[in-house]
Fold each of these.
Amino acid sequence: MPKNKPPATRNNQPKPVPQQQQTIQSSQQWSGPLPPPAALDQFNQIIPNGAERIMRMVEQEQAHRIEYESSALKATIRDTLRGHWIGAAISLAAIGGCIYSVYIHAHPAVSVALVSVPIASIIHAILKSKSTK
């Protein structure tokens, strides 16, 4: 019985076996402002003073962030204080109007309406502050 032979080509040579190629790809990533020390060393090899430049950039970004948050906090405090002053002025004007309406013997509903403005504002402020906490 004849043995199975590999198929032959024109020159009686076996067919070439297809070769497989593998490609390996790697990537690195990090979170936060600084890369790991090994990456900093690689940056130094590629760019002169690369690690120093990255550190300077991180320090500048941190200083900017601190300044931004500080100015935002100061603006919030100013806005809150301004709101308190405006609310106090409106309340005093309403109470003054109430006293004047009593003095000129206006209808009692006018005095009640004028007093209800600051009371309603105070109740609203208290309820709003409790809901945001």
Note: The helical segments are 37-46, 50-103, 108-132.
Amino acid sequence: MRSTARTATVRTATALLAAAALAVCGAQPADDPAADATTRDPATGAETTASAPAEPELAAADGDDYTACADGACEVAVAEPVAITVGAPGETLPFEVTAVTGEGIEFSIAGGGSSVGGSVNGVCELTAVGTSFQSRCVGDIAELDDTAPAAGELLVQLLGMDADGAAVLRFTLG
């Protein structure tokens, strides 16, 4: 019996020492790449914490210069309702952002006596021809369509929200 009690005591002590070592070393789960890593310098005992790399901030290439869209391609930040004409006047219908929400935009396209509207949140794209459109949302910017739209189509991509809460929109006229 004495051997069994001693074995149980050794196992308990070993488990406690292992738990204490993990707690002191600041171990992070191996499957969490975003976790901060803490290390201790053996010579000085000082702790150093290395943070996971931050995602790059989203910024519109053309800022809030909506006139950049006149050539049929632009990437602009939209913080408030605005009508944006992509291409030469008469080439497409104005795309109107009617509201900017914390997650995306509400929009409308009007012309020829009819109008259509909707909303998109996150990372999305919509293709419009006249006042009809189709949209889809994806999980990441890399999943957006990078092919040029067909002639007469307007491709609008919501890339996300910038640090100031403005929607970053990319327009491409086919």
Note: The radius of gyration is 27 Å.
Amino acid sequence: METSSSTVGELNSGSRRKTRQLQKRQKKQYIDEDPLCLNFDRPCSHNSKKLCCLKVSANEVARNRKHLFKNKTYVSQNVYLSRLILPYEPQRRRPRNVLHSTAKPKTLSVTYFLINGKKKIRVQVCQKNFMAALNIGRKRLSTLTKTLFSGNIPKENRGGNRKKIAYAAKRRSVIDFIGKFPAQESQYNRMKSKRVFCPVN
């Protein structure tokens, strides 16, 4: 039986390995564990023109949580939180003793709000009250405020195959190099086999 000689790249019809169907990554749902705010403990007692933490009742706190946790995903909740957060540059910088202080100058100030009343008026509250009312952590809040301050919108950056993109060019060059090898089709079961062989000589 005659054999046709060509290159690996021309005769290759794909891998013989069974392709594994990748399952879609299950998105974690962020559910409120205390929707009625039975365990809510107000961490402050601010009641001034600037900070009105006491004006937000427990019922209003529960209503704020309800609106937040209507969004089940991490990104959609951050989009909702971005409406209640206002990051900006500090308007006044206090002088520091550079020789004896190791603290870095403050580069970000943030104002926090909660929705209060039937008219849905935004009321300014402190950071501790904001985190306790909406049951969110300091790390998540810090990441979100830095994202908003940089002018970006909340998006999902977790997951994915990051190494595949990093080495895509090298992988492509190796495949092209192997594809230039001279090759022959199999003499047996040519209609079924996907194997190609390098010639002996």
Note: The chain has a mean pLDDT of 81.
Amino acid sequence: MAPRRLSIVALALARNGAAWDPSVDPACCAYPQRDPRDFNYPYSHLLYAEIVPDVIGAFVAMTTLDVRFGASGARVSYGEHIGPEAARSAPEARFDLDPDRDGSTLHTLLAVDPDVPFRDTPTDRQRLLWLVYDIPGNATASGRTLVPYAPPAPRACDEADDLCLAEHRVTFMLWEQPDAWHAARRQLF
């Protein structure tokens, strides 16, 4: 059986200060390193990974979303492969506020797995993993949880299927809310 693994994608996980490694051919890897000459980063990488348009439409990244799993709090970089066991508990999500925003600005954090059951045959499409709303400022832990965190559950590929893509693109998205999310709106779910 092919190993099961997750690829964590955090929308707006930008501003990577690492220098480009010229020994790495950007066409060789599923998630090439960030090229500092790429002024459309992270958008260009999200197109490359087909997050745009599979998961979300066009957008403009406004902040950095920092996602950390596990007790060690190790940061998960864009496109990093981790095993499902590393994502069993809810991650910590951090982000910076724009200078003209403060603790009264509300945000919504959403995590989805768009590759259920497999990336090449996503018959069930997106699975909602986590939804936290009314996050005041950047205090994610103080937000209201509508959908508690459910870890991704990728299945192993059948040994006979040589073309199966077992990798799942777990995607975290953050939006600024125009105002508080009222109970009447929650009934739409």
Note: The CA atoms of residues 47 and 53 lie 7 Å apart.
